[in-house]
């Protein structure tokens, strides 16, 4: 009886992008892939590490920036997927208000048909110096429960996890074995991964405060921030979490090219003050500060890179001397999927589908 050889796939990175790609790939009814995820940090074992972005994300679906056909596709697919997951308790329906400092910004809301119950706020007072506002219903999740769920799904499908920091694509190809396909979902790591070394990658520093505030029931975003002329890098928002119940993420900062992962106390004070100015309910004695967070959003000039590259791999490697030779120089297919900045979660399912299509293409 003939047997079909499985295709080896090695995914570098176990953030939301890498995990979702593995989920899409192994969800296909007759998939024939032997999938291994190699990463320095993995869910349940590295959730406190600041060296990856996924545990620290806001993780609400809230598009930003100008219209882009690719972004529209990714975020539309992801919204629908996350919305359909609401009955499982992993995601939740989230009423949201967003405010703008300029009326003209209402003309750039290209995503209003993707969410639910969108409307312009009229005949209501707006916070501080805001000039316009919108109301809509979106979807949100909690990384501390969602990432372990993804991992458990992959564990049940036989996906192997290896906790190891890879230095190069060449090392990944040797570990992956003959004829393996590599998926590069390394986020900011793509800047230093030998064989990629993408200097277009840069961090956007985000600082947050995690509070218990069950009285806050909706997400509020000041899209233009409270001071539209400020260059401080402030980004004011509050995002209720599906888990733990009653918790809210307060933010934040949006500081490009800032690699500092230490807590800035004045910034933390400013975050709470700005959020309370928009939502006075935070000043209730019921509110309790639980923790602080600092993460680096993995951005990239020109947007995310989702494409195929073929690389040459020598038969032997000084970087992995303990591995046996793979023979003569060979070509290895690499599917790149990194550089999503603040939009990793809200692009994840759509981008993963595109990455899998590239992986399966000849």
UniProtKB/TrEMBL annotation:
UniProt binding sites for FAD: 186
GO biological process: D-amino acid catabolic process
UniProt: D-dopa binding residues: 237, 297
GO molecular function, one term: FAD binding
Annotated InterPro entries: DAO (IPR023209), FAD-dep_OxRdtase (IPR006076)
Similarity comment text for this entry: Belongs to the DAMOX/DASOX family.
Name by which UniProt lists this protein: Nucleotide-binding domain-containing protein
């Amino acid at each position: 009886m003939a047997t079909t050889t499985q295709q080896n796939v090695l995914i570098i990175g176990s953030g939301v992008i890498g995990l979702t790609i593995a989920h899409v790939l192994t969800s296909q009814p007759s998939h024939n892939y032997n999938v291994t995820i190699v990463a320095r940090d993995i869910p349940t074992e590295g959730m406190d590490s600041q060296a990856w972005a996924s545990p620290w994300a806001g993780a609400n679906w809230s598009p930003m920036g100008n219209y882009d056909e690719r972004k529209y596709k990714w975020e539309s697919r992801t919204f629908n997927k996350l919305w359909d997951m609401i009955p499982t308790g992993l995601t939740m329906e989230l009423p949201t208000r967003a405010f703008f400092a300029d009326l003209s910004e209402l003309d750039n809301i290209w995503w209003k048909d993707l969410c639910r119950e969108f409307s312009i706020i009229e005949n209501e007072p707006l916070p501080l110096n805001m000039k316009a506002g919108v109301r809509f219903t979106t979807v949100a999740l909690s990384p501390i429960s969602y990432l372990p769920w993804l991992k458990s799904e992959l564990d049940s499908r036989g996906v192997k996890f290896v906790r190891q920091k890879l230095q190069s694509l060449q090392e990944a190809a040797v570990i992956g074995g003959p004829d393996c396909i590599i998926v590069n979902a390394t986020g900011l790591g793509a800047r230093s991964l030998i064989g990629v070394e993408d200097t277009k990658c840069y961090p956007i520093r985000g600082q947050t405060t995690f509070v218990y505030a069950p009285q806050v029931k909706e997400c509020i975003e000041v899209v233009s921030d409270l001071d539209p002329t400020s260059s401080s890098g402030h980004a004011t928002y509050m995002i209720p979490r599906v888990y733990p119940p009653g918790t809210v993420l307060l933010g934040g900062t949006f500081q490009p090219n800032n690699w500092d992962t230490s807590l800035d106390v004045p910034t933390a004070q400013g975050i709470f003050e700005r959020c309370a100015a928009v939502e006075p309910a935070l000043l209730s004695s019921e509110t309790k500060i639980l923790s602080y967070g600092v993460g680096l959003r993995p951005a990239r000039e020109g947007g995310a890179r989702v494409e195929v590259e073929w690389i040459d791999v020598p038969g032997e490697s000084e970087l992995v001397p303990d591995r046996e030779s793979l023979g003569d120089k060979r070509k290895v297919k690499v599917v790149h999927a990194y550089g999503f900045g603040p939009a990793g979660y809200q692009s994840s399912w759509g981008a993963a589908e595109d990455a899998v299509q590239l992986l399966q293409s000849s």
